[in-house]
């Protein structure tokens, strides 16, 4: 639904209900899950890489374990630093997902992968759109981790708030990213998929609103997904900390 909203032409404002009806009418319920396997597999790798990279970068920056006293700007910097490793995971998986969702006649994932590689503008078409994906991840994860800690300090539903804020900030870049990747598999000369050209075309056709088409659908998904993601992260860290502490902490000397 998010991709369908983003791909709607200028002047077209499909609502969530109408999109649901259209997809189900044309393809059945299974159409709602087209292209789900690539982002599902990617999500597992993405979250692992994102949280691990963020923790590692915080160590490199010398940030304290007690994040309640860490400046939010430094937390933004550590989050933004995850863009490079994360985009190496998200760029190819989202490229395959986008191609499958835009080209409804495409068959298996193998044929989609072959299509992307064979018809890409570069020798390895699977890398098409990596730059704009990295820019989106930088915009998203910098705000994501900083707003999570900030909202925790304000006693808000931290994970959901972080997801919504992160997507709101990075959504225009995601719109451009989806267009770049959707156009990248076309034969050379068919369309100009450069980042600046795609952004200019979007603005010319729909103004600033074009960069936020489909945001409502994304935020409806973002709040529960990211609330659950951070809840799972905090639980895992709590369990791991309690299991590791007895191992790394020296045993007290026995009383004489």
Automatic annotation (TrEMBL):
Pfam families: Mito_carr. It comes from the Eukaryota. It is found in: Mitochondrion membrane. Gene3D superfamilies: Mitochondrial carrier domain. InterPro entries: MCP, MCP_dom_sf, MCP_transmembrane, Mitochondrial_Carrier. SUPFAM superfamilies: Mitochondrial carrier (SSF103506). PANTHER family: MITOCHONDRIAL BASIC AMINO ACIDS TRANSPORTER-RELATED (PTHR45624), SLC (SOLUTE CARRIER) HOMOLOG (PTHR45624:SF10). This is Substrate carrier family protein S.
């Amino acid at each position: 639904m998010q991709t369908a909203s983003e791909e709607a032409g200028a002047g077209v404002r499909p609502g969530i209900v109408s999109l649901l009806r259209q997809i189900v009418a044309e393809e059945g319920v299974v159409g709602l899950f087209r292209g789900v396997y690539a982002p599902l597999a990617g999500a597992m790798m993405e979250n692992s890489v994102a949280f691990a990279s963020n923790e590692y970068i915080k160590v490199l920056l010398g940030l304290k374990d007690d994040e309640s006293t860490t400046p939010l700007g430094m937390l933004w910097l550590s989050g933004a630093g995850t863009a490079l490793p994360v985009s190496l995971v998200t760029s190819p998986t989202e490229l395959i997902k986008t191609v499958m969702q835009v080209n409804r006649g495409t068959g298996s994932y193998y044929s989609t992968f072959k299509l992307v590689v064979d018809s890409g503008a570069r020798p390895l078409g699977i890398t098409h759109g990596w730059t704009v994906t990295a820019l989106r991840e930088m915009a998203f994860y910098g705000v994501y981790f900083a707003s999570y800690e900030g909202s925790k300090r304000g006693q808000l539903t931290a994970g959901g708030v972080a997801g919504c804020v992160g997507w709101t900030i990075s959504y225009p870049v995601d719109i451009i990213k989806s267009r770049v990747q959707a156009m990248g598999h076309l034969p050379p000369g068919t369309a100009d998929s450069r980042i600046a050209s795609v952004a200019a075309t979007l603005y010319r056709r729909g103004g600033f609103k074009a960069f936020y088409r489909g945001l409502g659908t994304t935020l409806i998904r973002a709040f529960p997904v990211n609330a659950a993601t951070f809840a799972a992260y905090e639980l895992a860290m709590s369990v791991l900390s309690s299991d590791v502490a007895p191992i790394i902490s020296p045993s007290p000397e026995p009383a004489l």
